[in-house]
Amino acid sequence: MSKWSKQDRFNAILSGERADRPIVSGWRHFIDKEQNAEDLAETTITFTKKYDWDWVKINPRATYLAEAWGNVYDFQDYQTVFPRQKTTVISTADNLWNLEVINPVHSAPLLEQLEGVRKIRQGLPDTPLIQTVFSPLTVLLFIVGRSAYVTKTVFGIENPVTLESLFKEHRAATHHALHVISLTMADYVKELKQAGSDGLFYAVTGTAHPGLFNEEMFNEFSRPYDSIVLEAAHYGKNVLHTCGAYAQPERFNDYPIDGISWDTKADGNTDLDAALKATKVGGVDHALFAANDIPQIQKQAEEALNFMKDQPFILAPNCAIPLNVTDEALQQLKKSVFEKETK
Q1: What is the mean pLDDT of residues 233-255?
Q2: pTM higher than the cut 0.90
Q3: Worst-scoring range by mean pLDDT, 25-29, 111-115, 145-149?
Q4: What gap in Å lies between CA 284 and CA 239, rounded to an integer?
Q5: Contact in structure between 243 and 284 (CB atoms under 8 Å)
Q6: Of 154, 216, 225, 270, which sees the most CB atoms within 10 A?
Q7: Would you say 7 and 126 are in contact if contact means Cβ atoms under 8 Å apart?
Q8: Is 1 inside a domain boundary?
Q9: CA-angle at 319, arms to 316 and 324, nearest 5°
């Protein structure tokens, strides 16, 4: 009987096929180790080896793409995983016309991430890696100091550009900016392949929430630009993450993605019984890791694995694991797949 490698399992499951077992991974921020490529790579490699994750979602600092256009952040002052934003290059929406396409190999923030991916690949030669990128709409919101979620996350900007100014009063300028961002990201995504990434973890964050963007607005301001980035990433396996409550994972059934990650436990969201075309990723409430609720982590993982037993499935937390996670909680997530196999 042939032995399955990590790459074999990852590729099979994200191709909609079953492997010898489901795969599992967890990801979190290390906010004191994400300001340079060396620290990020070393921490990611150590974290992955400690728990022997089946695959890696590289977790760079949340602001790196906005930094590429000149935003400045204070990395000594965080609110959860978001450093305090000191300046934005776009203080008014009419300044969006000033945004230009950036060559990733001439951008210090993007070069830093490419170097980080290379170092992680060197340290984890046999483990599937996918780099986290945000949708152009999310990046634009970060640039102007707006929250990319329904709940407040931008830290440091008291009077950001209003959504009405962006999407009504200066609609043409906003489309220009989104086009610029998407073309830059498409070039960056191509460079990621050369650096060693096996695909993307493509985060549309909370932009699918109808309280932030209804379907018509989402189709106008996100979908066309998502297509540009995802087309450039066709070489790999791509997992889309739609964040928070009312995340509408069904909205992405026609996206060219291989996996879909969403909060199966949040308000307004379907659970693992959702009618989705891509391989499902998740099943365990990430908030349980902050509470160190080992019995519930074990219970939710077992329920997810039982429900998905006849389908390709990736067991994971429903979003990034909180900073105060314990080793015991992470060990339980990893063990859940193997406990299931032995029952």
Answers
A1: 97
A2: yes
A3: 145-149
A4: 17
A5: no
A6: 225
A7: yes
A8: no
A9: 95
227 assigned to some structural domain: yes
What secondary structure letter does DSSP report for 72?
A: E
Three-state SS for 131? Answer: strand
Nearest CA to 40 out of 57, 25, 26, 23 is that of: 57
Q: What is the DSSP letter of 169?
A: I
How many CA atoms does the CB half-sphere of 16 hold within 13 Å?
5
How confident is the model over 263-302, as pLDDT tens digits? 999 999 999 999 999 999 999 999 999 999 999 999 999 9
Q: Which domain holds residue 113?
A: 6-342
Strands 129-134 and 200-205: parallel
Task: Give the CATH number for residue 250.
Answer: 3.20.20.210
Cα–Cα nearest to 80, from 28, 12, 5, 4:
28
Beta pairing, strands 82-87 & 72-79: antiparallel
Structure tokens at 136: 């152009």
Whether pLDDT at 342 is above 70: no
Cβ of 185: how many Cβ atoms within 10 Å?
A: 31
Position of tokens 């219970």?
Answer: 299
What is the mean predicted confidence (pLDDT) over 91-114?
97
